């Protein structure tokens, strides 16, 4: 149960898109819970001063995952998230293989300030996706994270930025991927770099196996189209204290697998993402005018092909049911080969510009209606969102 209150100040002001400010709500991004009633129902809207009791039955939610919450009122999401309305939701592990490692939840977020206020969104910010010049981990700029020599730490990382992509790299160190958006993996996968787009989460182990010193966690240049391509330091690891002997385990989650499903007779869908005349479209439909609607039958699998016909990448997010990534055409080759080979389920996946993603979507457990959209949330606010009904 979550007792919710919209404590934003009452106002009659509208934003540049014409939506009355400070109406808000709550979305539990990644939770496999009901999208209806008083659960993860993003169609509920709350005026300033209103209170509500949310109730979530999390019994079907996968253990060991990092999810997050943020507002989801169409037309207002980008500015409210940009201003900082978001936080992490940690689901505890059901295995104890990772329980002894020192664990940090790292919330990535950027912002620009105008005085002491979040800088405002322009029309072109809604087209490009707004990025800030201040990049933070847990609200701090380049914090120091101490590690003992030889120590293994678990970092559970979420990108809560509205539009900024992070291509993470820890100087001179490997990162061992043990979890994705929706589950823990069968075993650790060693990586030197990994792209984390808005809404995505990664769970990694890091081992302090280098000479004593300081090492930067950076975001490397990545061109998503429309962004400034640069290297940014996120935090600094500092080797401190007595050395310990810790190892990366060889098995994490024995239940993780890529299911062998005959895809020939499954419902196939195609979703085409486009930007046109200052609006974001899915299959030619603008959410505000005439949203594209998918009707899915509960207890079936579907194949979705997300096609990007624009000159910028779009991180595609579907609520309620995470998917298995089958194919990625275009974009970062390491990202594509990783997510099309590991048994990791995803609720957010980058769709490269002029590229595509094919995924296996299980429709499970809940009836009702929810949404899918681009998680550059500025694009969601200008229409790149559709309705998904479970029946
Ligand atoms: Cu989200
Ligand atoms: Cu987008
Ligand atoms: Cu959403």
Global outline:
globular
- N-to-C CA distance: 26 Å
Overall pLDDT score: 97
Count the beta strands: 29
Q: How would a textbook summarize the main sheet? A: 6 strands, mixed
Please indicate the percent range of residues in DSSP E strands (runs of 2 or more): 35-45%
Bound molecules: copper (II) ion
Radius of gyration in whole Å, from Cα? 20 Å
**Structural class by sheet pairing and helices:** mainly beta
Helical element count? 4
Strands of the widest sheet, in order across it, are 9-6-11-16-13-14
Uncertain segments of ≥5 residues (pLDDT<50)? none
Provide the helix percentage. under 10%
Could you explain the architecture of this structure?
- The chain has 391 residues and is mainly β.
- It has 4 helices and 29 strands.
- It has helices spanning 77-82, 123-128, 333-339, 377-381, and strands at residues 2-5, 27-29, 51-54, 66-70, 87-90, 102-111, 113-114, 117-118, 134-137, 144-147, 152-159, 166-170, 175-179, 184-191, 194-196, 201-207, 214-219, 232-239, 267-276, 279-282, 293-296, 300-308, 314-318, 323-329, 345-346, 348-351, 356-363, 368-374, 385-390.
- The strands form 7 sheets. The protein has a 6-stranded mixed sheet, with no helix packed on it.
- Strand 13 (175-179) and strand 14 form a beta hairpin.
- The two termini are 26 Å apart.
- The chain binds copper (II) ion (CU) (3 copies).
- Residues 29, 70, 199, 317, 375 line the site of one copper (II) ion.
């Amino acid at each position: 149960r979550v007792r919710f209150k919209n404590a934003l100040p009452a106002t009659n002001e509208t934003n540049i898109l014409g939506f009355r400010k400070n109406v808000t709500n709550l979305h539990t991004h990644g939770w496999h819970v009901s999208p209806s009633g008083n659960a993860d129902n993003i169609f509920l809207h709350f005026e300033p001063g209103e209170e509500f009791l949310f109730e979530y039955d999390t019994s079907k939610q996968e253990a060991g995952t990092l999810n997050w919450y943020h507002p989801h009122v169409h037309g207002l999401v980008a500015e409210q998230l940009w201003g900082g309305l978001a936080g992490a939701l940690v689901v505890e592990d059901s295995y104890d293989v990772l329980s002894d490692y020192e664990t940090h939840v790292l919330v990535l977020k950027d912002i620009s300030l105008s005085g002491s206020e979040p800088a405002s969104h322009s029309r072109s910010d809604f087209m490009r996706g707004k990025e800030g010049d201040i990049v933070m981990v847990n609200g701090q700029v380049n914090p120091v994270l101490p590690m003992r020599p030889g120590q293994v730490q678990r970092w559970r990382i979420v990108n809560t930025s509205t539009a900024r992509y992070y291509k993470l790299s820890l100087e001179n160190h490997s990162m061992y991927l043990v979890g994705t958006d929706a589950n823990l993996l069968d075993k650790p996968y060693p990586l030197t770099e990994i792209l984390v787009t808005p809404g995505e989460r990664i769970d990694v182990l890091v081992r302090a196996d280098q000479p004593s010193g300081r090492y930067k966690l950076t975001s490397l240049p990545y061109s998503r189209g429309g962004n400034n391509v640069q290297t940014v330091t996120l935090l600094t690891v500092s080797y401190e204290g007595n050395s310990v002997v810790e190892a990366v385990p060889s098995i994490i989650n024995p239940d993780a697998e890529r299911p062998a499903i005959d895809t020939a007779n499954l419902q196939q869908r195609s979703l085409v993402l486009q930007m046109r005349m200052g609006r974001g479209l899915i299959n030619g439909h603008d959410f505000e005018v005439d949203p594209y609607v998918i009707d899915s039958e509960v207890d079936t699998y579907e194949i979705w092909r997300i096609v990007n016909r624009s000159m910028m990448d779009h991180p595609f997010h579907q609520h309620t049911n995470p998917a298995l990534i089958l194919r990625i055409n275009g974009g970062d080759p390491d990202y594509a080969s990783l997510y099309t080979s590991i048994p990791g389920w995803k609720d957010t996946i980058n769709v490269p510009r002029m590229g595509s993603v094919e995924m296996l979507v299980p429709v499970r457990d809940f009836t009702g209606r929810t949404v899918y959209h681009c998680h550059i949330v500025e694009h969601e606010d200008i229409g790149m969102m559709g309705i998904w009904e479970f029946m």
